[in-house]
Structure formats: C-alpha cells, structure tokens
Write a structure and sequence with these properties.
The protein is of the alpha/beta class. It is about 45% helix and about 15% strand.
Length: about 220
C-alpha cells in the first residue's frame, strides 16, 4: 500500500509523513520544495518517495498522480495537508492574495482528491483532510484562510456522503495552535498548544485504526 501526503516538506505534513513512513509502507511525499522533500525522505528511509509538485496546478497534479500510480503500490490513504495562510485586514487583501490562499488550500485539496479517487475507490481507501480550528471559528485578520478552511470542512462532509457506498472514509482534522512556521506567520506571538506530531498521531489513527463507520467527521484537536 501507499500513503500520499501533500505539503510533506515541513510542519504537520512532515510529521505525518514520518509517522506513516514508520509503518514500513511506501509514502509519496508531495511539496513544491524538492530539496526539503529530499531531507524528509532521507529521514524516513528508502520507502519514502519525493514528488515536487504544486498542488494548485491541476495539470501538475494529474501528471504526478500518474507517476505515483506507475511507480508505487496502490494508493490506500491520501492526506491532503498542503496549505497557505495570509494575515491581512480584509479590506487590504488583493485578488491575487485571496486566490493564492484558496488555490493552495481548496483547489489543491480538490485536484489531488479527484486525481486519486479511482485508486481509493478500488482499494476502499481513506482520505484525511487537514482543516483547522479556523475552519470552525472566525479569526480576525485571517478571513481568506478561515474561508478556505471552512470550505475544506464542507468538502469533507459532502465527499464522505458521496463515497459512503464505496466504503471510502473521508474525515478532516481541525488542529488548534500547532508549533509550525504557518502558525507564526498567521498569528505572530501565538503560544502553540501542540507539536506537529500530536496531529500526526491523529492522522495515523484515521489512516490505520479508525473504524470504517467513522466518516464525514471533522475532529477538533483543540481545547
């Protein structure tokens, strides 16, 4: 089996890739930074495979998914983790900034999911979307990010119902403050409550141990 993890070069994605890689399965690590991906692959071992791809590029996603399909065992778990944040007063957000945040968080999740749906349907696989506490609540100065993560929650719930008969589980994780570069960019001065590995353990549960009946859930990992 193969796990696919997007945004795997740093933060939560890196922690998830490392934890899933420890199972001995093949792990396809996706991110834009090829050098950072190579470092994470070296940490995991020979069954980690780097794919330098921008998930906001539909054609690039399709091409990378085709490579995974040819080069690795069947994909059974997809973790959509790639994301982007923007801290800006709403009145000052440009069209390009709004589009960038949604392209990475929302479009990327859709493109990668769509690319692997035939594989996951055949395998009765699992999809794990990394949303955020910002997908549950509003946060000042993070309107673009909050809107994008709310979209991920809605996408998760809808897709879970669509794929219920195919026995593909679809769930989201909504982390609170995690010690990552993205947290420091989005909320400067925040005191993180968790490490990336705390979220990785939740992802591992959903990927390997959660009952099939658990689908369409958005798991809040914050107090």
């Amino acid at each position: 089996m193969t796990f696919v993890v997007t945004g795997a070069s740093r933060g939560i994605g890196r922690a998830i890739a490392r934890r899933l890689g420890a199972t001995g399965a093949d792990v396809a690590l996706w991110a834009r930074d090829a050098a950072a991906l190579a470092t994470v692959c070296a940490e995991i071992g020979p069954r980690a495979h780097a794919y330098a791809v921008d998930v906001a590029d539909s054609a690039a996603v399709t091409a990378a998914a085709a490579r995974v399909r040819v080069e690795l065992p069947p994909v059974t778990v997809l973790v959509n983790n790639a994301g982007a944040v923007l801290r800006r007063a709403t009145v000052d957000i440009t069209d390009a900034e709004w589009r960038r945040v949604h392209a990475t968080n929302v479009d990327g999740t859709f493109y990668v999911t769509r690319a692997f749906l035939p594989d996951l349907t055949r395998s009765g696989g699992r999809i794990i979307n990394i949303a955020s506490r910002a997908g549950r609540e509003g946060t000042p100065m993070l309107a673009a990010y909050c809107a994008a993560k709310h979209a991920i929650v809605g996408f998760t719930r809808s897709l879970a119902e669509e794929l219920r008969a195919a026995m593909v589980s679809v769930n989201a994780i909504c982390p609170g403050s995690v010690d990552t570069e993205m947290l420091r960019e989005g909320i400067p001065g925040a005191s993180p409550d968790m490490t990336p590995d705390d979220i990785a353990r939740t992802a591992e549960f959903l990927a390997l141990h959660a009952p099939r009946a658990l689908t369409g859930s958005c798991i809040d990992v914050f107090g």
